[in-house]
Amino acid sequence: MSVLSRWSTLTPSSPRRLVARLDYLLRKRLWAQILAAMVLGVSLGLALAPTGGALVSAATAEMAAAWLALPGRLFLALIQMVVVPLVVSSIVLGIATSGDMAFLKRIGFRIAPYFVSTTCVAVIIGAAIALWIVPGQYVGEGIATTIADAGVGADVPSLVDVDQTEMSLPEQIIEIIPTNPTHAVLSRSMFQIVLFAIFVAIALVSISPRRAKPLIDLFVALQDVSMKIVSWAMAIAPLAVFGLLAQISIQVGFDAIVGVGAYVGTVMLGLASLLLFYLIVVGLVAGRNPISFLRKIWGVQLLAFSTSSSAAVMPLSMKTAEEELGVSKPISQFIVPLGATVNMDGTALYQVVAAVFLTQVYGIELTLAQLALLSVTTVGASIGSPSTPGVGIVILATVVQGIGVPPEGIALILGVDRILDMTRTAVNVTGDLTACTVMDRWLEAEVRREAPSVE
User: Fold this and answer.
1) In angstroms, rounded to a whole number, what is the distance separating the alpha carbons of residues 242 and 38?
2) Where does residue 141 rank: exposed (0-12), middle (13-18), buried (19+ CB within 10 A)?
3) Does position 5 have pLDDT exceeding 60, yes or no?
4) Residue 424 CB-density burial (10 A; 0-12 exposed, 13-18 middle, 19+ buried)
5) Which of 119, 82, 105 is CA-nearest to residue 315?
6) In 134-260, alpha helices (H)
């Protein structure tokens, strides 16, 4: 059976309604509403902060922070509620409707080393810039203590389910396989969840289309329901950002935010360098005009920046890849959902910069071997992380545990994490679309033929 005929047999319903909703949000300048909400949230938070000549008492400010953060917590909860079914259904549909086993082998053997390579480049860029600028030297001696005393982010490490038991390498390899998919979902082990989805999808490709169709239809319905809930969540995105930033600003105050300004600038410079790397890849490897590429994806970047979730913008990312960049549908349906989970280059860069920054603040000297181990750990931690807002700070808590940074150190960067989360999400989405153009160039002949090539 040809690739095109199999595609026509198993193709899921196009999520046009959600894409139309995303386009509507862009037309309504959601990104501008988000930026305005950021400014208003920080301004209100600083006005109410106990450390800055507050207008209200500390108890009142604490109560106000809790209520202001309510829409933001609701937004995060809605996204987290559907991220597992959305990612699983998207990966299964992307693989199961992509063609035959020969196509899967071709794209699989290319995309896996590509994702690992770009993540390694991101980590190298982040480490180099952090060691060059040394942002930790700009933090005042009392700032870390002040934030720690405020208790901000003290519960972050507890959000991470870390197995401290020492395991041998063979045991760690076996642990990757999701022997209990239910446990993987409950523990949010995204790498295991992705593997489970890939196994199911490959099995669906291996059986006849008639037998696969009922399960395919089930995943189509699951994807549509998940994306509808995502659209509801994005309707409150500006209010969510306003409330979360107001809460953080109340808790940390103006001095703390200014004190980590060099850290923010370092991360931003690293992300800009990574974006430049993507444009070089687009020009040299994919053979496209980098400026034209940026113009075509700006809508997705703005929405990713606004929502801080690459999972939330997956439908628009796939549409942009297919209609604006001319990427074939099987490739976009395969790479975008997979990349939203395992291709977290912006998050990896942020994590290594943050880890190096915290070691500089607390006077921890990193040897070359420790820095290399930190980089490898960061690459591994970024792969398979949930594509939901704020997850980077949670993963970072696990990364810094082994290098001597105290748990309260996370609080030092939590106050500015929202803006960095939004920025690195836009870079993550750019990386996924870059991968689509590269894979489309490499697999153009195989995908667009009427029948799969014979080895």
Assistant:
1) 5
2) exposed
3) no
4) buried
5) 82
6) 141-150, 169-176, 181-186, 190-206, 209-235, 237-259
Instruction: Please classify residue 88 by burial: count the beta carbons closer than 10 Å to its beta carbon, then call 0-12 exposed, 13-18 middle and 19+ buried.
Output: buried
- Listed in sequence order, the residues at least 6 apart from 269 whose beta carbon sits closer than 8 Å to its beta carbon are 129, 133
Q: Where are the domains of the chain?
A: 3-7+19-448
Element (H, E) at 87: helix 70-96
Contact between residue 396 and residue 410 where contact means Cβ atoms under 8 Å apart: yes
**Is the torsion defined by CA of 441, 433, 10, 24 positive or negative?**
negative
Q: Is the CATH number of domain 3-7+19-448 1.10.3860.10?
A: yes
- What's the confidence (pLDDT) of residue 168? 57
Helices 101-133 and 261-284: crossing angle in degrees, nearest 10, is: 140
Q: What pLDDT digit, counting tens, does each position of 242-301 carry?
A: 887 788 777 766 666 666 788 889 999 999 999 999 999 999 998 899 999 999 998 888
Q: Quick one: how far is CA 277 from the chain centroid?
A: 18
